[in-house]
Structure formats: structure tokens, C-alpha cells
Amino acid sequence: MFLVWLLVQVMALCTYPNLLDSPSFPEDAKKRARRILQACGGNSLGSYSASQGVNCIREDVAAYITRRDGVPADPDNIYLTTGASDGITTILKILVSGGGKSRTGVMIPIPQYPLYSAVLSELGAVQVNYYLDEDNCWALNVQELRRAVREAKEHCDPKVLCIINPGNPTGQVQSRKCIEDVIRFAWEEKLFLLADEVYQDNVYSADCRFHSFKKVLSEMGPEFSSNVELASFHSTSKGYMGECGYRGGYMEVINLHPEIKGQLVKLLSVRLCPPVSGQAAMDIMVNPPVPGEESFEQFLKEKESVLSNLAKKAKLTEDLFNQVPGIRCNPLQGAMYAFPRIVLPPRAVEAAQAHNMAPDMFYCMKLLEETGVCVVPGSGFGQREGTYHFRMTILPPVEKLKTVLQRVKDFHIQFLGEFA
Amino acid sequence: MFLVWLLVQVMALCTYPNLLDSPSFPEDAKKRARRILQACGGNSLGSYSASQGVNCIREDVAAYITRRDGVPADPDNIYLTTGASDGITTILKILVSGGGKSRTGVMIPIPQYPLYSAVLSELGAVQVNYYLDEDNCWALNVQELRRAVREAKEHCDPKVLCIINPGNPTGQVQSRKCIEDVIRFAWEEKLFLLADEVYQDNVYSADCRFHSFKKVLSEMGPEFSSNVELASFHSTSKGYMGECGYRGGYMEVINLHPEIKGQLVKLLSVRLCPPVSGQAAMDIMVNPPVPGEESFEQFLKEKESVLSNLAKKAKLTEDLFNQVPGIRCNPLQGAMYAFPRIVLPPRAVEAAQAHNMAPDMFYCMKLLEETGVCVVPGSGFGQREGTYHFRMTILPPVEKLKTVLQRVKDFHIQFLGEFA
């Protein structure tokens, strides 16, 4: 986590309400804690909440979305979840189930975050790959969506289109134009849109902005805004708080069929409720201090410090990778990762095959053994046949990150020499 | 929750480590908090843990089981979960998946806790009912297991036997003899045993004791203890803490095939980790104060007060229900519920049918409308054809519970008159 002080304070007050009398906590932290506790059973984080989540927290999420998009959000459409992963799994479970002769197809980007492939495999759905355009900053190309859906229809029934924006592991931030095209495509093909927007606060490139699918959809006129089904996900685990241990998340659903909504509530109620402490963390994230509140200045300073630091490290990482012969790295426009392409010499590919390993796995294992740096091979996320990548987070402190990057650079040059 | 002070204190210290310097917290609470935080990434509840759970907490769970059973437990066999529901769902998912010509059958008690029927329906498994013996205090009868498995084999492949002990909603506590019989049966039929033991601390009848399946299995000799596969579940949500909002739980697996174990870890890692605050709550539950520690006296007092109060309410509820003509209630040996049988007059059954409702649902809705008392109809848990029940918790404070019981009594007598 990034130690945003207000979060720590409100969580402390909610966990130990005796502190509400302590003069060492700011008034706005107390106000937030009181509001949360009053909405909790027994005024405690230790009681079950409603399966959909604590009412006032869902209201705060709706108000947050309304402010973000300038388009109203309805608390009834908000579901608090156990991190975003839980929400994504739950909605996919509902969308994939239900008869039909052919199996349900779910379109996912390649490279993807492996939650998607894992859940689709669990659910017995067909994974329909669409490839992001590496030569174009990992942009999503609607022509590629058309190709993927056309080929998929020969063996399954494509029903869902998953988008990760900003991208994980690829870090691209989608343009408004691209999002409009995707929505139009989803409408034409009657696909349910699943927008994984957990990195919405993590945008670093000066020429990029986050546009939510909800906002763009709402502004495309009633033909789209009243018909395209959408679920969007957010999380306390990323952004400038990074409070992943609390497992807080929400999803907003738009145009969900009432019958499906009934099924969703039923499915959620089987698991009783998301962790109430995670729900409280979500409330702090969507309800940040405003000018005039005691915590405002410090909060703003902390938020800007975390985000500008990440932006600095994003640039640093891109620049350094692109100085290395045989490594090519797209700009890290958003999210928290670099996903550079590595050119592996044919002899290295042969050596990997001799070890019965994927070539990028062979590379990453050698990197780990020789430098202590642990990165994830691209084959874990999917990549175009014959290309190789790895994913690295930019979370280490700047000086440490510099050391890490230098080690990768030295290793890579030595590796090229070894297998030349 | 039941407000056990040590839990609140340790959770506060873990959430807000500044308090570790405060003189108003007992030393043993600080010691516990430090131990937990040192094992957490970034010394914080806000970071991801390992998918299986924080190491030192799994060690404390293993030590707890070892003390409870007098039989060693291995931390490697402990998985921390998001409440017990999550653990039960996950293990069932693994056991039910995987080919075979006929569908997997899972044996569950009737009446059951509806998590089971819901998850089996989600997973497309066959629910194989075995009936608990209402005339014999809801005991589990191995002859009935034999009947159920014999009939099930005609249309599915029974692989799992679920046991809830102490029972929910039925409140029975199984004898050691019964557990031995069940284990022998599972061994003969090669069934995976799933022991839902979340009410293990909630035993009230003086002539009953909780025996864990793990302990009994371990003491039956190597033929059983090395072969019968078992998963046992526990939770922070019940017992004398009742900290359900934190979603803490664990499962212990015994004799799990290494390949299945690999699958389990993979499946868990997709969801990243259980909430770390719930893991911390679990640590406090399995690591209570010992004589000599500062919190010992107060903790003991609180624990005994919660449990003796529940025992008193269990007896009160049983006694009052059995004074009402047409209600018959088995002893509430354990757990937190009464599940009385109600005799409904034929005219009431007809009236329910005219309303297109199950007769017990009709009864419960009328009870709610006329008295404000909300109970759950037996049909939600399953019951023998033609019998009717409802489930009521014994959680309200004694005086309130008395009022509730009196209202149910008055309503029932009036209901019998109305439909005589």
C-alpha cells in the first residue's frame, strides 16, 4: 500500500471506535468513520452487511461515478465485491451459464491479465483472443475485434467482450474514439461489455486521459446508452492507495436484464457479503476530502506524490529499456507495469527447447538466477506467436528500480552474447 | 459480533500501528499485533498476502488444531479463506470438476445449510440427499447414508460426503461413535469427506462434546488415517467472537492428492488472497490468551459469558417451543438455531396452495406480517415431504428472545384456530 494517511486513520477509527474521542484524529476522518459505522450492523466492521454491500457506501460509489463522468449513477446498480477479481468472476459466471447449443465465447485481449483465462477455463467457456497492436502502442483495433468474432462464430457463441483499460500488462490508455468504436461494435454484435477499469487513476502520459466506458456510452445517445449492457470494475488495490490486502472492489452494471440482476443478487447472497473492512476502504477511496476539510491538503499532497512518482518511474523504465539492444518497450501510458518485447537469439530459443521450457520462461528463470530480479514471462499473459516479452512492475522505489533496470540491462547484453 | 475485547484491540493495533506505543493496550495484545504485522508485506494489513494465507497465521491455526485434537497438524495443510463459504465452494469446485462419464454426486444432509445446494447447482453437480433423523434428535444414521448412496449410484457418481457438525439448521452434535461410523462408510465408498465444523465452539448440551473429524480419523489407525481424504472448515463468524464482517476462515486438508493440491493452489491464486484483516481476526481466534497473559482473565470472562448466554437461550427456546401445541422442537445441542417442526392444519395447507406458496412459507409470511418476527421456512433448508419447520436464530438478547418466542407462541395458537 502507499500509506495515504486518511485511509489509515478512518480504518483505525472504524476498527476501534474508542478513538472517535481522541483529539489526534482530524474531524473529517471522524465524520467519515461515523458515517460508515452508522450504516454497519451493530455499528461494527465485524457484522455481516447486505450481500450487495453497505448502502451508504454504494451511495458514495454512485456519487463518485457521477462526479467522475458528469453522468448520473444509480446506487442500485452498484455491487461491492471482494476485490475486482471477485466481481469479474461472478458476472462472468452468470453470463456464461445458461443453455444454448454452442458454448459461450468470451473475447479477451492478448496480452491479458491471467484472471480472465483462468476463470474462462474454470467456467468451461471458450476464450476468444483478440490481439492488441504492439506496433501501435498496444492499441485496440476494431478490425481485429471483427476478425476475432467472425472466426469465433464458427465454433462458439460469442457473448461477452472484455476490455482492460488502462491495460494490464500492456499499460496502454484507450482513446475516446477507440472506446466509441468498441461500443458500436459491441452493439452491432450484441456483446455484453465487461470493462476492467481498475487502473483508472493510474494514467501517466501527458497526452492520455482516462475515459470510462460508462461515460462514453452515456454520451453516444439513447440507441446505445439504453441498449448496450455494461459492467465496469474498480478496486481499492490500485490507484494511489494500493490497499490490496483489504480486498475492496465494486462493479457498476448498466442495462442489465432484471432477470439477470435477480440471479446476480442470488449468487452474491450465497457468499453472504464482501469483507466489510474492504467496503470501508472503498468508501474512503470514492469519498476523498474536498477543499475546506481538515485532511484536504495532506491528502492531495500524498495522492500527487504517489502518482507523480509512478509517472516518473514509468518514463524512467520506458527510457532505460529502449536503450538496451534487443529490448523494445512501448510507452507506459498507465497502470503499473512495463511489458517490453525481447528479441531472443535463435540459439537461446533452441536452448530453451532443450530444457523443455518456453523461451521467455527460460530467459526469466536465468534472469532470476543470475540477478535476483523476478519478472513474469510474457507467455503467462499471451503474446503473438514467435514474440517474447516479460512483465515487470514499476512499484519499487526509484533508486531500487534504477538498480533493477540496470541489472536487467547488463543481464540482457550478457545473454545476447552468450547465445549469439 | 459479540465484542471480545482482545479481538477489537489487536485489530486496532494491526490497522493503526501507531497505537503500539499507547499505554492503554495490554502487552499481550501488542505482542499478537506485532507478530501478525511482521509477517505481513509492508508490515500492513493493506498488502496482498500469499494466496494460501499469511505463514505465521497458518502456523497458529495448525497449533490450535494440534492443541484441540492432541494430534499434530501441518501448516502446509492449512488454507486461509474468505469465510468458510469460500473454502467450501473452492474445494467443491475442484472435487466436482474433472471428466468421468456420469456427473459427480455430492451427498448433503437434509435439512442442510443452503450454501450447499446453491454451490452444487452452480457447479452442475448432482445433489444427493441423506435425511437426518428428526425423531432421534436429528442424528445422522449410517443406514440412511447407505440408502442414499445406493440409489444415487443409479444415476451419478457419488464422490463427496458433506457433514455439518454441529448442525445448521438442526443444531445436533454428533457422537464420537457416529463420526467413526461415517468415516468407515466414507472409506468403504471412497468418498471425500467435507466436514463443516464452523460451530465447533457452540456446544451447549451438557451430555454433548464436539469431536473433530480430524481427531477421530487420526485415532482410527493408519488404514483410515492415511487414506480417507478430508477437508475441515472453520470460521471467525461463529463461536464466541462472531466476527462475520471480516470474512475470516480456514480449511485443513488431509490426505489430499498432491495433484489436487496443486490445482487448489492454482485456483486460489486466481483470487489473489483472502482479506488480510480477516486473516488477522482468525489469528486472534486460534491464539487466545493463556494463564499469565494480561488479557487472560477478561478474555475468559467474555468467552464464558457469550457461551453460557447462548446455552441459556438454547434451553429457553427449546422449552418454550415445546409448550406450544403443534410445535415440537429437538434440543438445541449446538450451533445458533432452533429448527422446530410445526404441524399445519390441512386447511392452512390448502390456503397456502391457493396462494401458490409452500405451506411453511405461507406460515412464515403470516408470522412476519402479524408479529414482525422474521424466521426462515424449512423448505429453504429441505425437510421430509409433508413435514414443516422454520429456522430461528437464538442471537437476540435474552429478554428480546423471550418476547419473540411469546409472539410466535401466540401467533401459532391463533393460526391453529384460524385454520381449524
TrEMBL record, chains A, B:
GO molecular function: L-alanine:2-oxoglutarate aminotransferase activity; pyridoxal phosphate binding
Transmembrane segments: none
Cofactor: pyridoxal 5'-phosphate
EC number assigned by the record: 2.6.1.2
Keyword Transferase appears in the UniProt entry: yes
Residue stretches making up the Aminotransferase class I/classII large domain: 9-407
Pathway: Amino-acid degradation; L-alanine degradation via transaminase pathway; pyruvate from L-alanine: step 1/1
Catalytic activity: L-alanine + 2-oxoglutarate = pyruvate + L-glutamate
GO cellular component: cytoplasm
One Pfam family matching this protein: Aminotran_1_2
UniProt keywords, alphabetically: Aminotransferase, Pyridoxal phosphate, Signal, Transferase
Keyword ATP-binding: no
Residues spanning the signal sequence: 1-17
Any GO BP annotation: L-alanine catabolic process
SUPFAM superfamilies xrefs: PLP-dependent transferases (SSF53383)
Classification via CDD domains: AAT_like
Subunit structure: Homodimer.
Family in the record: Belongs to the class-I pyridoxal-phosphate-dependent aminotransferase family. Alanine aminotransferase subfamily.
Task of the protein: Catalyzes the reversible transamination between alanine and 2-oxoglutarate to form pyruvate and glutamate.
Official protein name in the record: alanine transaminase
Annotated organism of origin: Myotis myotis
